[in-house]
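Researcher: I'm comparing several assemblies side by side, and this is the next one on my list. It has 536 residues spread over two chains. Same procedure as the others: predict the full complex and return the structure.
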Amino acid sequence: MGKMNDRPLILVTNDDGIEAKGFSELVHVAMEFGDVVAISAQVPMSGMSHAITIKVPLRVKLVEERPGLKKYLTNGTPVDGVKLAFNSLMEQKPHLLISGINHGSNSSSSILYSGTMAAAMEGAINHIPSVGFSLLDFDPEADFGPSCQVARDVIRMVMENGLPDGICLNVNIPAVPSGEIRGIRMCSQANGFWKEEFEKRTDPNGHEYYWLTGFFHNREPDGGGKGTDEWALKNHFVSVVPIQTDMTAYSLLEKMKTWELTGIKHEG
Amino acid sequence: MGKMNDRPLILVTNDDGIEAKGFSELVHVAMEFGDVVAISAQVPMSGMSHAITIKVPLRVKLVEERPGLKKYLTNGTPVDGVKLAFNSLMEQKPHLLISGINHGSNSSSSILYSGTMAAAMEGAINHIPSVGFSLLDFDPEADFGPSCQVARDVIRMVMENGLPDGICLNVNIPAVPSGEIRGIRMCSQANGFWKEEFEKRTDPNGHEYYWLTGFFHNREPDGGGKGTDEWALKNHFVSVVPIQTDMTAYSLLEKMKTWELTGIKHEG
């Protein structure tokens, strides 16, 4: 991006592919706030988590360029795209990274599988204030109007307050009309998990194979209570969870120092 | 696994592929402690993080069966393999999940990209005490003797003490002879990151492409001080970091509740 003006520089990415409606809408919101570099993959990368591409060469193609916007296509994962943008496509690091708007929830432990949130985490560990947005609606033609309004509010909030190094935001939006969104809640990650159901089939050659399907289980009663993202979403609030890339379980760390180890000398 | 006896049932997986020496050595260690189900991919899955396979069918093949061991091959990622084992291959959930021994470090923020540790995290969110092991040596023929001794100690420790729900262990082993390992340290995750360097090349058709390379940066002075995994490893200690799958940054959560939001009603 040339240094034509003093507008903030914003990197936009996603994991549903460059044709996704949620991506296109987020790019438009970002352009209200600054100059935008956008990068996405040809194909959806849902479930790619923090995967990086080591074994095949990465390709990048500039597919759209107009004042305030450069849009790139890549064969890489969402995290590859962020790395490429930081290292090869942008003359300077962006002031903000936003990812999404994802078609489908990334609340609770879904964050572990999410390419959308992995891109935001990649921003956070590179000192960039970063936010991932997800709408609880898998429909390719979902109404992103309320989500865009939420995105504007959160972007403004992050530009005003900044974010501590290594922490990004996981924003999920309930699939309800704008007037029915009851507000924005700061939440913790609910203690949920996906209960897998594999569908076992037999191919025309007689070999068995499996399709991964599954549905979400929330382990906490009442969705985990008022403090969790699952509870907020079920009650038509937007959930905002601050996510840290330091995954140390400090609660256990002190206790572990009393564990006895045999064989190899143990120093607490 | 049949219920022939009361031996613990242990699931072993990795992300370097079924032929990796570190996997084979860890399977042998596991067999000292219980009956083993092992699953791995045909090809290395390094850098696959918590990726799951949605778009192609998953295949599983039993490639070895003898008393105390069933070994499966899959085309899926490490996390797919764990999900398949829990849901389709094992008659009951295992008492322990161990992943590795990885060829190369998964300390500090490398955990975010690691298939080895994603498999352990998948165990943790499914209530299974889970540990990932990594040796700081990329050599396919690395000496895993000291690492196997560490694995025995840690497995014994986890079997005695258990692990809280949602927390697994990230164990990294320095690449030094057994006699030079100074002990085992309980650590926090160092504040490091990978500094990418993309190598830009031009293919025979004149198109540019990139290879992802990179090297690790530790941001903290002296490797982050005595408490971090990077410091421990540099000083020839084994590092054990408890890892939580709840990624909420509680430190920021309270502060965020004071942020003002415009546009949409904000309830803290």
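Model: For your comparison table: The longest strand of chain A covers residues 96-103.
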